[in-house]
Amino acid sequence: MLRNRSGRCFALGLVTVAMTATIGCGEAVDDTETVQSAITIDNALSANALSANALSANALSANALSANALSANALTASALHDPLAREFLKYVVSCALDDGDGFSMRIDGTNYDFPGQLGLAPQWGRPHGSCDGSCQRWVSACVLARVDAAGVKRIISLRGQNRALLPDIGELVRFTDREATYYGNLFVRDQPRFLCLSPDKSSDPRVCGDSMANCPMTVVGACDDACANDHGPFGSFGDCSDHVRPGRATMYHEAITVFLPKQSTTD
What angle do the packed helices 133-145 and 83-96 form, to 10 degrees? Predict the structure, then answer.
């Protein structure tokens, strides 16, 4: 077992992916299950909630969100009338804040819980907190990695060069199918979002569905070509680019590689 900065024990990096078209965005997770003592959460963000409309609807702008502490006091209920905005915020909070942190808001007469889970940016939730560029990119990579096109409940392993993503031994043994690496920034104009495929992969059906042409992210190519660091922690890639041509790329140190269970399928 590992301990996060707050001293709570948990095995990090596992995420249960479960979604339907009528997901209860921002609501507390019911019937949370434990798998091999790992964190599991109701997951998969819809592609629609990645859209600019979900961020800007009712004044929930990306700039306003990242410039203030991630708390109920920094948000207004009017900014979260849109279910897509609530869904997006749910995954942002889950990725950023520690397990046990988070907040609740009453919106249109209904109470919504936004719980923390992974702790990639716990400082964002503290008084006077904010989310700088690196924070934005870590949270974005996590959110992007949790998109699911098929709405199938499954468990994934998130790995990267961040203390919050350290796996335990059981996770390393069980999750050996390296899928893809995700990176970008959902908190800046145009929302750059990218994925690169693991060297033995030619598609990403979990995130992109049946056609890579319809993927909600730009598919850069193979991670071997897109990423400078192919020896990251536990098989992850880091320092990945938005373009494989030298001299034209923007690099993202903050990248998250997803591993699926051994001999997994996405059918």
Answer: 110
The distance in angstroms from the start CA to the end CA of the chain is: 32
Cα distance between residue 215 and residue 203, in whole Å: 10
265 within domain boundaries: no
Amino acid letter, residue 99: D
- If DSSP codes are grouped into helix, strand and coil, which group holds residue 3? strand
Q: What confidence category does residue 44 fall into, taking pLDDT thresholds of 50, 70 and 90?
A: low
Among positive and negative, which fits the CA dihedral 257, 216, 155, 142? positive
266 belongs to a structural domain: no
- For the cut 70, the answer to whether the pLDDT of residue 171 exceeds it is yes
Q: Is residue 267 part of a domain?
A: no
Residue-range definition of the domain harbouring residue 25? 2-260
Neighbours of 208 (CB within 10 A): 21
| Total count of domains within the chain | 1
Buried b (16+ CB within 10 A) or exposed e, 220-242: bebbeebbebbebbbbbbbbbbb
**For the chain, percent of residues with pLDDT exceeding 70:** 72
Specify the pLDDT at position 71: 86
Report the alpha-carbon distance of residue 267 to residue 264 in Å, rounded. 9
Higher pLDDT, 152 or 112: 112
The token duo for 35 is 């798998």
Partner residues linked to 211 by β-bridges: none
pLDDT 10s digits, 201-244 = 999 999 999 999 889 999 999 999 999 887 788 999 999 999 86
